[in-house]
Structure to design on (179 residues):
């Protein structure tokens, strides 16, 4: 597995340090707001588990599972495999995501959740790849762990063909591993 990693982009220590910083900011911003923290499966699982333990405020956990189909024409349509179970109307909602890439997924998730009329809706993404944003995507993340260059990364929850999610760091995959 690790022989297919070209370069470690973010070490475990760098990730944990940033999550500690974000935890302090989010705990302040959501104090007395009883937020519902929604994780977008599956990529967010590792980040979610670490992030939630840095929030020293009352909060509830919810998950939604989506899947994006990127055809050769990059239409990038998104489907919901499993919606959240809780009623979020009138609640403060924070979405956690692994990566903000073209913006298709988060634009879809944002609209889907806004239709449920939360009191507020913000997005926290571990990674942001602004260079990959699709034209027309106006949504921005409210909290960003790291802005990264345009490379395909795996680990810390992120996959290539469902593998590499269990690497403890974020690494750039060797091009020959794409075959
Ligand atoms: P979007 O392009 O912003 O809609 O991102 C869609 C999804 O593609 C993300 O939630 C990730 O699961 C996946 N993705 C985007 N970039 C990468 C990457 O560099 N490595 C692994 N998965 C990625
Ligand atoms: Mg994902």
């Amino acid at each position: 597995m690790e022989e297919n990693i070209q370069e470690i982009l973010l070490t475990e220590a760098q990730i944990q340090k940033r999550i500690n910083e974000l935890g302090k900011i989010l705990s302040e911003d959501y104090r007395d707001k009883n937020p519902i923290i929604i994780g977008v499966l599956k990529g967010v699982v590792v980040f979610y588990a670490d992030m939630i333990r840095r929030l020293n405020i009352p909060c509830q956990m919810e998950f939604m599972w989506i899947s994006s189909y990127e055809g050769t024409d990059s239409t990038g349509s998104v489907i919901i495999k499993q919606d959240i179970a809780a009623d979020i109307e009138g609640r403060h909602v924070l979405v956690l995501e692994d990566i903000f890439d073209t913006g298709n997924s988060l634009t879809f998730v944002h609209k889907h959740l806004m239709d449920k009329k939360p009191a507020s809706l913000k997005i926290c993404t571990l990674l942001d790849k602004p260079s990959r944003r699709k034209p027309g995507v106006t949504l921005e993340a409210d909290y960003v762990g790291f802005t990264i260059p345009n490379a395909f990364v795996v680990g810390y929850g992120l996959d290539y063909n469902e593998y590499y999610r269990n690497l403890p760091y974020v690494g750039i995959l060797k091009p020959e591993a794409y075959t």
